[in-house]
Amino acid sequence: MGIVVIGAVFVDIKGFPEDVYVPEGRNAGRIEYIHGGVTRNVVEDIANVELRPTYVSIVDTSALGEDVVRKLKRHKVDTSYVKSVPGGMGTWLAVFDNKGDLAGSISQRPNLYPILYTLEENGDEIISKADSIVLEMDVDKEIIKKTFQLAQKYNKRVYGVVTNMSIAVERRDYLKHFDCFVCNQIEAGIFFAEDYEGKTPQELCEIISANVVSAQIPSIVVTMGGEGAVYADCKGNKGIYPARKVIVRDTTGAGDAFFAGVAIGMTYGKELKEAVEIGTRLAASVIITTDNVCPRFLPKELGLDIDVEQ
Known about the structure:
The protein is 36% helix and 24% strand. The chain has helices spanning 38-47, 63-74, 113-128, 141-153, 165-168, 172-175, 185-192, 201-215, 254-267, 272-287, and strands at residues 3-6, 10-17, 29-36, 54-59, 78-84, 90-96, 102-108, 132-136, 158-161, 180-184, 219-223, 229-233, 238-241. The chain is globular and about 55 Å long.
């Protein structure tokens, strides 16, 4: 069944100015509607490395919901456990400046309880066959609890992806059970209740490592945009991985691709540093385009000794 991804689908509405972005003024430009949502992006990124993931999610009953499922199937995602329900998708409204950086955003989340019902009805058959599990960390507590029950039952690793750390930190007791989770510098500060603004990668690496060891969190990766990422585990292993130097067109989805690379690497036998390297490469491939997912890769291009299913 490959990697099982659990989380929400969103519709991304993105606005790009034609000229210098004026925060308090009217900005002429273009608006794009794109299939989005962190886990929807992640599952497509994984599929684009030809790894045949399974998605557990919901979409709405509109033509747009049907289009989301159709696209995922085209990318060879198993959508057998994607349910269609009224109001099943969230919305992310984002505005970018003329440099391609996010200037502001608002999101509206759907009711995700139908995912819990799927796990209660089909969780054993889904998780027992999984290579690993990717779980959106700020879904409802009941979904997190059920996922970990199944993961422990079948001895599966769980990797956490953050969509809203302010919500996720309310589940801090569960977060320590993730084999690895990825967040950005600001989110790490929220999680550890500290201010990391202005920290260099070297400084942040030491701080994160000390916190991870003392809290006995299995492992964590903290992204720092153009400064790369720092990583650490509870055994004291730590490091810094630089970002790739590329021309930025649109940063949307880069963090999701980075996470997908880390989860792929760790699922299929790579050490944390090697997994971060894969994540960095996938993130760079997204930044240089206006799409929010990575282009096609073969596993062997990323150092993975996996034969592609035909």
